[in-house]
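Troubleshooting log. The previous run stalled partway through. Resubmitting the same two chains, unchanged.
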Amino acid sequence: MEVGKKQYKAWLYLAPTLILLIIFTIYPLINTFIIAFKENYNYLNIGYGKGPDSTEYEFSSWGLANFKAIFTKGDFLQYLKTTMIIVFVSVPISVVLSLIIAIALNSIKALQKFYQTVFFMPYVTNTIAIGMVFSVMFATHGGLINNLIKVFGGQPQNWLGGDLMDSAGNSLYPSYWKSMLVLLTYITWNALPFKILILLSGLQSIDKQYYQAAQIDGANKMRIALRITVPLLSPQIAYLTITSFIGAFKEYSSVVAIFGNQAGPKGYRRQMATVVWYVYDRMKTSDMTKGMGYAAAAAVVLFVIIMFFTAINSWVSNKRVHY
Amino acid sequence: MVLLRYFICVLIIVLVPLAVFRKKVLSNREIVTKRYGTNLDTTNTMIGDSVSEVIRREKTIKIIKYIVTYTFLTAVAIFIIAPFYWMIITSLKSTEEVNLPDPTYFPRKIIWSNYRVAMTMSGTYFGRYMINTVIVGVFSTIGTLITTVLSAFAFARLNFKGRDILFTVFLATMMIPGEMMVITNYITVSRLGWINTYQAMIVPFWVSVFYIYLLRQNFKQIPNELYYAAKVDGTGDFQYLLKIMVPIAMPTLITITILKLMGAWNSYVWPNLVTEGKMRLITNGLRTAFTDDQGRSPYNLQMAATTVVTAPLLFIFIFLRKYIMRGVSRSGIKG
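Second attempt completed without errors. Output:
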């Protein structure tokens, strides 16, 4: 047999992929960890080694200086809090809501394809574009949402700030939670289609016999949903929970889409900034020694948090998921 | 308590078949009533009454259930569609109408010229951005297809040492947040002198582990016999891959192409980092041109530009829904 020849051939087929993967995935992963521990890191001076002056040398010393700086100076903890709120509110809401929608969708025959298509639409749209639409819909003056509130007899709200002034001519800033509500609405809107699709295809693959047996036993709908549907869908639910946890920790585009590049209303910047927003903000800064090093440290913190929650998630699902 | 429940169950099991013949039962009752006046057998009456009652109740429950289900689904559908509707009607309003304190739900006068104004606004290079996006989309797709086909073939068909371990490593990279790579990749790209070039937006995206996974699953479904038959005929591995496997896996390759092109159309973060001015992609132009720090342009122009960016995606979705939804739903199946 030509085993030896085959071996070398296989690596030939894999070569382009491997080279690219090493350059743009494996090496960056390791290097970002290394950068995070270099104080006063300046990537323009790569190769100039360690030295006291960061204008001439690559970095000044090894250590935890970057981590210390991001946690003590600036608002990194605030960004972390915003990110955590997004994760722990949007993920449960969107998973439960999409489960209810998928079950409802699975129980009907007429118009099922139509609803399915409509529900999938947000998946194929541009996050930035529709985020801008949301900011128009939630506009204080002439926005759809405030108009609806007014029609139903409520008081119009200042959701996003911007052009709103009080009687003295000062800009009025929206409260953190009002802006958060808009952001969470948009994130949920964006997160539903993928989950509905996955859960619906899971539902459709469940054997009908389970339901027939339950019906004969006289189980009610709620019981059937909790005791049969959810356990049989648990692989899909676990998969969606893990991936949307990771996705929510990395929330960035929807923030920029609604609140602009400064992640907040005019004059009240960074109000809705997230961890990833901070990473990109640091990368773009002109202050070299506070740029990449801080960004790398923040990315490592995010990475550790994500790995921690992913581990918990898979530990829980290993115990609870029925394959 | 248990007995009662058992009794109810039995009653239902007895009543359900009766329900099917309800007309017969009822008509029998009518006949009996007519013939014998009110002198009807009591047990019969009881069954007849409870049957019709159960039927009526079940029917009511079913109707209520349908009304609730459809109302709920329609409400969700309205929530999903509302932004699209608002985007389109706002894009067609006049500037005066946009500034009304109470918004109109349909433009009083449709202003098509908003689109022309939005496309030619000073400081934006919409035409150029579209060309850039197409260039980046096409070339990154071609590269991705090449690497994906070759490595999926190696993983699905060829035997070599460490294949399964390597594939696990590949899959593990999907779990790592991209932000970990972005920092070093930015440094790499800038040291290569690629800032503000097309290759900066193309080359780093030539490998997608998810698509390799997708295509490998597809390749694995092709029976081994085909491979051995080709071997007997003297067809080489590469010939076999091109002439037999690629055509069979064409639907998956089409899915990959669509998703990749849509990805280029929607990419925002990376182009925002590595390019500026005329080299940006369409989504960057959208964000910066219409809501910069200096102030916002009128909503109708913003929404016109947004519609221009969103419309191609919706058209692709309408016509190629099958490919897109299949590719996406595949990712939920554990393999």
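Takeaways: The mean pLDDT of chain A is 86. Chain A touches chain B through 98 residues (CB under 8 Å).
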